[in-house]
Design goal:
- The chain has a single domain, classed as Beta Barrel (Elongation Factor Tu (Ef-tu), domain 3).
- Helices cover 8% and strands 45% of the residues.
- It is built from one helix and nine strands, in the order ββββββαβββ.
- The strands form two sheets. The protein has a seven-stranded antiparallel sheet with strand order 2-1-7-8-9-6-3. A two-stranded antiparallel ribbon has the order 4-5.
- This is Phage tail protein.
- InterPro entries: Phage_KPP10_Orf10 (IPR021695).
- It holds the Pfam family Phage_Tube_PhiTE.
């Protein structure tokens, strides 16, 4: 039997371990394009097209009180490139992004209860192993 525990997943951005996640789908990462597509000619011949697009997106949902918010905000303000890594020891997977930038800073909002802030990180080179 397998037991799921969110604590088996660690995200490191620019050498900083990210903490203070919001509820729900707190970490998501994906390639920006399908690796393969196909085209079909008039005679029915099929050609598979391999995408050269290596870009990807990492989305983090963090509580406003997360200690990682100031670190990420400094990265956003600097405009400098950084890398990320997601390590899941439960599934034995690793996802990386190189030459990354934060797409835009989350909208300022406050409510009666703390709501997660969504931070989207764009990666020029994205890999999943």
């Amino acid at each position: 039997m397998t037991v799921h525990n969110f604590k088996h997943t660690q995200v490191i951005v620019a050498g900083n371990i990210i903490t203070g996640y919001g509820d729900g789908d707190a970490i998501s990462a994906e390639a920006n394009e399908d690796k393969w597509s196909q085209s079909v000619g008039a005679d029915g011949g099929v050609t598979y097209n391999e995408s050269a697009n290596e870009t990807g997106t990492l989305t983090l949902k963090l509580k406003p009180s997360s200690a990682s918010i100031p670190v990420l905000q400094q990265l956003y303000k600097s405009g400098e490139s950084f890398d990320f890594m997601i390590q899941d020891t439960e599934l034995n997977t690793r996802t990386t992004g190189e030459d990354c930038r934060i797409q835009k800073w989350p909208t300022f909002s406050r409510a009666e209860e703390e709501e997660a802030r969504e931070i989207v990180i764009l990666a020029a080179h994205y890999t999943e192993n």
